[in-house]
Amino acid sequence: xxxxxxxxxxxxxxxxxxxxxxxxxxxxxxxxxxxxxxxxxxxxxxxxxxxxxxxxxxxxxxxxxxxxxxxxxxxxxxxxxxxxxxxxxxxxxxxxxxxxxxxxxxxxxxxxxxxxxxxxxxxxxxxxxxxxxxxxxxxxxxxxxxxxxxxxxxxxxxxxxxxxxxxxxxxxxxxxxxxxxxxxxxxxxxxxxxxxxxxxxxxxxxxxxxxxxxxxxxxxxxxxxxxxxxxxxxxxxxxxxxxxxxxxxxxxxxxxxxxxxxxxxxxxxxxxxxxxxxxxxxxxxxxxxxxxxxxxxxxxxxxxxxxxxxxxxxxxxxxxxxxxxxxxxxxxxxxxxxxxxxxxxxxxxxxxxxxxxxx
Length: 359
Fold this sequence. Notes:
Structural class: alpha/beta
Radius of gyration: 20 Å
Low-confidence stretches: none
CATH superfamily of the largest domain: Type I PLP-dependent aspartate aminotransferase-like (Major domain)
CATH topology of the largest domain: Aspartate Aminotransferase, domain 2
Shape: globular
Strand order of the largest sheet: 2-8-7-6-5-3-4
Distance between the termini: 53 Å
Number of strands: 12
CATH architecture of the largest domain: 3-Layer(aba) Sandwich
Order of helices and strands: HEHHHEHEHEHEHEEEHHHEEHEEH
Number of domains: 2
Largest sheet: 7 strands, mixed
């Protein structure tokens, strides 16, 4: 006998990237920052008093919201702190989507989105991206025609790394009848000369919700800390009504405050990742494996059919060498591997292994 809801029984859960059980593995499959957190973060961890653990944390993460608001040029009540960016995604579904109402996504995209939709009993309106991994001109109109009240758009896009300009985001949001959540999990790695800034749009658009996370840019994937930025129209119901009580623990808030208050170290890791992204892309291209131009901390590499048994075979043969990359095996990605940007040594080891594999 089973006791799940019908929608849960029918659905397939989220499949995360493989977590190897050895610390010496070269892990390039889950888009973690290859460099450690800042010393300020580690000092905050060491200095966490026992009293902070005995008591409940701030129910609103007030200090973190203040620091994040200062960093982004918004008011504290335009920030909501969450247990990782994924909790914000779940809260957005809970807050803005009636059970059974459709949710809009680009296709392909982050594979957690349809899982959250299925939990809510919501059909997914998946709009195919064009040949350059960008939404079509009819994207917003398609969502409106389907009655979508929440559209999820990751930017830079995953798994391609393609970046939409803030002006393009503004056009989409302005055309939608519902909320647009822009998932900026990888935005810290965008080339600074592009001057990319989506957050400024929340002062103009009351239906825009911007997701930020400390998992990638601040080397804190193990901490589980994210936050949303938006107008009070979208932030207030999440912060006051649907957010879980005490979802951000005292240790996470202390470390997040330290990370956002001392960003020099993080910015240096972003620069190093960008340098390695360019170097790795060039090395793969020299080998005959072309990559989509990326503004994230990963590249999407197309494996030629004559390279072994294709992308899936290359992934397995790398795994046998204790090197982990991501293979999705779904339409349009069947010949692709997503490779996280590692340290110079990790990227060199990857290239050495690939040369051995493909001869």
